[in-house]
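Appendix B. Chain record.
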Amino acid sequence: MKLLVAKIHNFRGIIEQTISIQNYALLVGANNAGKSTIIDAIRAFYEKDGFKYKADNDFPLAGSIDSESWIELHYQLTDPENDSLAAEYQTPENLLKVRKYFQTSQKLHDGKTAAGAILGYKTDGTISDEPFYGAKNVQSGKFGDLIYIPAVSKVDEHAKLSGPSALRDLLTNIMADVVDGSDAYQNLTKSVNEFSNSVRTRETVDKRSLAGFEDDLNNMLTSWQAKFKLKFSSPSTAEIIKSMLGWEIRDDCHERAQNIEYFGSGFQRHFIYSLIQLGARYVPKKSTKKTKDFTPSLNLVLFEEPEAFLHPPQQEELCRHLVSISENADWQIISATHSSHFVSRNAERIPAIIRLQRIKGIVNSFQIKTEDWNKIIDANQEIKLIADKYPKLKKTMQEDDLKPEMEAVKYFLWLNPDRASIFFANTVLLVEGQSETALVNKLLDDGKLSLPHGTYALDCLGKYNIHRFMNLLGALGVQHAVLHDDDDNENEHKELNQLIADSTIQGFTVSIKQIVKNLETFLSIPSAKSPHRKPQHILYCYTNGSINPDKIKEFCDLVVSCFPNTEGTQAMPETDAVSTKA
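Structure tokens predicted for this chain:
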């Protein structure tokens, strides 16, 4: 079983949102964007570890469209799972749709409130008025198992043996299959019986014994025709793990065991991840059931800030491990992350990225679904129409550059950890290349330039790609401005400039500004002798004072003008050219 869709209605900052969930889904966005809201809504459905909906905290403070609050989950079932599902819920698509009401005025068939109940959609598409499989808390076992890893968690929560934990579940899965039939366990059982017979009759120095205690008590129970007998039982698998098994972490450098708190936070998080990862490998294979009992298999991992306490290479390694786990038949992972490294490693699976944004307290989600991704690919390939008109331009392009599959490859290459920061930015400034980003960032560092909070300057690797990033950012709900050279607005550049203007995304492209000719002409400095030297040449001229301060101020004013009225509003796009004349 796999979770396909989550619909959330009136839960905290979410009024009405629908998100598609792939095997490995990433929730991204700025702080307080709503990532944890998605995670907690799913937790409230499962009620794992006692987590429940609380109206005082979880019903929206403002913006609610009615008094109801619910979450609806859609699951894709395997053929055997669908066959074992009650006939009234079966569909030809093997799709199970269920809704859990947190609060509602809806009534069940018996007149009781539907609040707290999980109701299934029937084959005809209507929602049942009876709790799914007859109980309010039926989610245990009927929708798989939920594994929640908070942003800050202790090893003991995942490795304790006295209560539920990932380590105890993992050990139970292994020991349950190997203990009962092992010779060692048979010998243990025999030894327990021998110990029982021996200790029962053994007396203390003052003549007390267990056998004597039994006899004395039974004498007092004679008139009731009943007998009391002490029993010594062989320990079960659970009792062995709880009472006889322990664990320690040994520090090989100091050759002794150390308390887990001795190790750093990064190690502790890695230890927890390792338990989750091994859980995917050590889940026992289920035997085929002959009964029609609906017990689908799913391990749904909700992972908040998996990057916490890990340096970048460790983050990338962990991301690869999580993707690998999610590829197992009955595992899914939803991560809420602030790490551009995690997003970068997912760049070839852009539809799996879910960007959250909070505006005036209301959470909105943006996601590129498969059909939308195809539209973006089609729009990106408008460049082919321009290349066909200009042989010189077309000669620079490979045949496979125009294939749809290449678009995913390009984004994978472009969205390195630095550029992947666009998914967390409030606004993005799209520029042609490194020259502009280097100068903008240097001016920001020097305090000569100020941009809206959370602005990221993105090097688009050339004018030919600006429309690609506009399409991507617009689909993911990121406000952006564009600043590019007009290159005299001649030949292919005239059409490229028009393509950029035509790629405006209503509500998200806040402005498009052009510099007549190019940046070096604008700054009144000589051109670099080769294109790859342009960024360092411009920075060198700036740092040694070769650029007129008035031109620096004019450039700063131009950059600032790219963001008109961006605070909490969605500005209409503006397009104009800036003269190079002083």
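Further analysis of this model is presented in Appendix C.
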